[in-house]
Amino acid sequence: MLLVELTLAALTLGGLYALIAMGLTLQYGVARIMNLSHGEFMIGAAFLAYWLVSAQGLHPLLALCIALPIGFALQWLVYQTLLMPLVRRAPSPAALEVDSILATFGMLFIVQGIALVIFGGGYFSYDYLSMPVHVMGTAVAANRLLAAGFAIVIGLVVYVVLVRSRWGTAMRAMAGAPRFAHLVGINPRSMAAFAFALGGALVAAAGVLVSMFLPFSASMGVTFTMKALVIVIMGGVGNLMGCLLAALLLGIVETLVTRFIDPGLTLAATFAIFLLVLLLRPQGLFGRVGR
């Protein structure tokens, strides 16, 4: 029974982390934007779900359907208005990465500040499927199972589309060789804007799913951004399968630390693994040298 409990907990964490990190790896891998405000938009989606469910009486899954296009449109707008001027003036991809880090670092505090003014620093949650269900003799909260299921399904659908479709091939080509993308008919700026917006939709979905079972606050976004960065680097930048596997690995590690050592050490364990990867395999656990 303990094995079932640990497996379900690891899948829940890993599925949500994968969804958050896939959004970030798309934004960085294709658009070359290291978005340090990624987690703030996830928390923004969680607050949107809270408002839709608590004040408007909508079903959380309907809130998920509403948050996805809003997350896409909002991030597309951010890319076009804030980041496109940086793209136009950047003399090289390296310069764009530095500029985008500084710009999104500032955006982190703007989004977080707005959320703190509106909602304050307290924790928020709403009641949804909090009753336990029994899986192979182990009691698990139904909302956690539902969130994990949706996270895994959404992540796998995006992965399959990116790997199997012609459109996904174009996006991966853009990620692998952006300088030559225009030679095969790809509009680099349109593709980058689309990838950035798709990353926003994924992180919005993650925010709604997190709000179903976890109390959240306006200042929690930084933690999720840092974990997404760790997963992206562990999985190999731009490597979607590596991202999924690294997220699952992080979910397993955090579950084991919480269960057998101390819940307060999960973040320390996360960054201990991160430091080891940086020292021993800087291209990531699933990345390739020279990419």
Describe this structure in words.
This protein is an all-alpha fold and 291 residues long. 73% of the residues lie in helices and 3% in strands. It has helices at residues 2-29, 38-54, 60-89, 93-119, 142-164, 166-176, 188-211, 221-235, 240-260, 266-280; strands spanning 132-135, 138-141. β1 (132-135) and β2 (138-141) form a beta hairpin. α8 packs parallel to α10. It is globular.
Key phrases:
mainly alpha, 10 helices
Brief characterization of the structure:
The protein is mainly α. The chain has 10 helices and 2 strands, in the order H-H-H-H-E-E-H-H-H-H-H-H. The protein is globular.
Please bin the fraction of helical residues. Answer: over 70%
In angstroms, what is the radius of gyration? 19 Å
Major sheet summary line: 2 strands, antiparallel
Reading the helices and strands in chain order gives: HHHHEEHHHHHH
Q: N-to-C terminal Cα separation, in Å?
A: 42 Å
Kindly state the number of beta strands: 2
The chain-level structural class is mainly alpha
Mean pLDDT, to the nearest integer, reads: 87
Number of helices: 10
Order of strands across the main sheet = 1-2
Q: What are the low-pLDDT stretches, counting only 5+ consecutive residues below 50?
A: none
Proportion of β residues?
under 5%
Q: Quick one: overall form?
A: globular
Set out the fold topology.
Elements: H1 2-29, H2 38-54, H3 60-89, H4 93-119, E1 132-135, E2 138-141, H5 142-164, H6 166-176, H7 188-211, H8 221-235, H9 240-260, H10 266-280
Helix pairs in contact: 1-5, 1-7, 1-8, 1-9, 2-3, 2-4, 2-7, 2-8, 3-4, 3-7, 5-6, 5-7, 8-9, 8-10, 9-10
